Amino acid sequence: MIIIIKTIIRTVLIQKGPTKGRALGNYRPVTCLPVAWKLLTSMIADEMYQYLEDNGMIGEKQKGCR
Fold first, then answer.
1. Fewer beta carbons under 10 A from the terminal one: N or C of the chain?
2. From its phi and psi, is residue 17 left (phi > 0), alpha (psi between -120 and 50) or beta?
3. Is-contact 32 9, C-beta < 8 A?
4. Can you name the residues that pair with 31 across neighbouring β-strands?
5. pLDDT tens digits for range 5-15
């Protein structure tokens, strides 16, 4: 089953330090996502993690998503 969800996001560039000027490396992108999208992706991640745990598909040394 393939689920396609289309969402609109907004990315804003935030200046890291005003003393460093307007150099391109002095900005970081911040993406504003709708709360519903955050909740949905959190629920999907929880289900996927539980499936992987139940079926022993995550290695013992895997610490990135635990």
1. N
2. beta
3. yes
4. 11
5. 777 788 999 99
